[in-house]
Design a protein that fits this description.
The chain is of the alpha/beta class and 265 residues long. It has 2 domains: 128 residues, 3-Layer(aba) Sandwich (Rossmann fold); 129 residues, Rossmann fold. It is built from 10 helices and 12 strands. The strands form 2 sheets. The chain has a 6-stranded mixed β-sheet, with helices on both faces. The structure holds 2'-monophosphoadenosine-5'-diphosphate.
């Protein structure tokens, strides 16, 4: 029988995950079926139970359910525990929860963008779920420093304390230079950009927006200043590959899938 997987979220209508996992499955010769589950905001657990009852083997979890998935898992990985979020569920005797977002971001930077993080001076902008999910992986990649900055400065300090790095208000970044700035805010989804002090984005080596599929004001501002910039499509593909590996113990090649996605955009 074909093993079933899906992405669950609200909304998921435009999710590229089914396309990506179908491509991985073809490439690796794995017999899987990957769908999408649109769960109502208060219906996560019921939808997961129904999916498991119908033979579901695993789920990708996206907004707004990453915290609920963390609570639902009976065992979580160390990295998911520190991120307090789960984006991958594996259904076996136990329900194992893991998060592959951080690995996805670091692999995209390292392998697709040829931007290894060792020794770099990094700024992570944002202190919500997206930032929380990648902070540890960024630190583990061995940068010289990681600074977390957020519009609401108290949230940056809290997150920085948890990960033992520097937390700042936007205004405190004036005059600083970063090799890499990662935008982990949801500002781009509203057509806004984080209000970094003038000169900070303009002097960056690489500007990375975790949002994909749109030219966010952050990316546009970077490119206008001649700064190298990337959206988060590669991170999406890389986190998917890591989930696929957790489910199937096979690691798909991501480059051809990312290339095909970019070509179809
Ligand atoms: P997510 O899970 O996508 O991170 P979230 O937990 O709601 O969503 O967090 C959203 C993040 O984007 C926060 O860091 C938020 O900053 P505040 O904590 O100050 O609210 C940030 N954000 C959203 N819109 C922003 C904007 N226009 N400028 C700067 N930061 C913004």
């Amino acid at each position: 029988m074909t093993d079933r997987y899906a992405v669950i979220g609200h909304p998921v209508a435009h999710s590229k995950s089914p396309w990506i996992h179908a491509a991985f499955a073809r490439q690796c010769g794995e017999d899987i079926d990957y769908g999408r589950i649109e769960a109502p905001p208060d219906g996560f657990v019921a939808a997961v139970r129904a999916f498991r009852a119908s033979g579901g083997r695993g789920l990708n979890v996206t907004l707004p359910f990453k915290g609920e998935a963390f609570a639902y898992a009976t065992r979580v990985s160390a990295r998911a525990k520190r991120a307090q979020a789960v984006n991958t569920l594996v259904f076996g005797e136990e329900v194992v929860g893991d998060t592959t977002d951080g690995v996805g971001l670091v692999r995209d930077l390292d392998q697709n963008l040829a931007f290894p993080l060792r020794g770099r001076v990094i700024l992570l902008v944002g202190a919500g779920g997206a930032a929380q999910g990648v902070a540890e992986a960024l630190l583990e990649a061995g940068p010289a420093t990681l600074t977390i900055a957020n519009r609401t400065a108290s949230k940056a300090s809290e997150l920085a304390k948890r990960f033992d790095c520097e937390g700042r208000a936007f205004g405190e970044l004036a005059g600083r230079r970063f090799d890499l700035i990662v935008n982990a805010t949801s500002a781009g989804l509203r057509g806004e950009a984080p209000a970094l002090p003038s000169g900070v984005l303009e002097r960056a080596g690489l500007a990375y927006d975790m949002v994909y599929g749109r030219a966010t004001p952050f990316l546009v501002a970077a490119r206008t200043s001649g700064v190298r910039a990337s959206d988060g499509l590669g991170m999406l593909v890389e986190q998917a590959a890591e989930s696929f590996y957790l489910w199937r113990a096979v690691r798909p090649r991501t480059a051809p899938v990312l290339e095909a996605l970019r070509a179809s955009a």
